[in-house]
Amino acid sequence: MLYLKCTAEIQKVLKLSKASLVEAEPSSAPLGNWYINRFKVGRHNCFVFMSENTYLSFIMYQGKKPVTAKTLPNMMLSGIAQLLEMRGYSDAAIDTALTPYHSGLFTKTDSRSVLGVLNDLVVCYRAMIEVGGGLQSCNLTDIILKINTMPQRTLQWPHAWDAVEANLGNPETKH
After folding, report:
1. Where are the domains of the chain?
2. CB neighbourhood size of 115 (10 A)
3. pTM of the full predicted structure?
4. If DSSP codes are grouped into helix, strand and coil, which group holds residue 118?
5. CB-CB contact of 152 with 117 (8 Å)
6. Does the pLDDT value for residue 104 go beyond 90?
7. Which pLDDT score, from 0 to 100, does residue 172 have?
8. What are phi and psi of 67, to 5 degrees?
9. Which segments of the chain are extended strands (E)?
10. Distance (Å, rounded) from C-alpha 122 to C-alpha 116?
11. How far apart are CA 161 and CA 171, in angstroms?
């Protein structure tokens, strides 16, 4: 089960009613449940996704089609697969990470400290995109990979990839 922990901003964008939100349960998935927020860079809406227990994160920006409650979970799963692939994880490891997410439910955020980490990541992503010349000019892949190697005090200073490797193992080199 995938619990998508949405900020109030995301709940509003997806037009989620209070009745449509469920209580999240702890996840046994290697990457856990995910927090989602949104921010703007120029005129583009960017969605930031962050694993609750590893702080692995990535962003995706909205294209011409609006993001909906129906499209967001698949968008996120594609982003996780792409991120793990960029890091060198095998198809089997990616399947291990994604298989527990057979269905998704929306819930509200429930941890101020995790939400604080997410908000800090938004600041970092926005700054690195702007320094890189905006969404049209920056190397988004490099930015995402750099953000995930930043030490996290709440993880006792290892970075997100260390936490991911503890749950999925080391990435395998592709030949």
Report:
1. 2-168
2. 16
3. 0.93
4. helix
5. yes
6. no
7. 67
8. -85, 130
9. 2-6, 34-41, 44-51, 57-61, 104-108
10. 10
11. 10
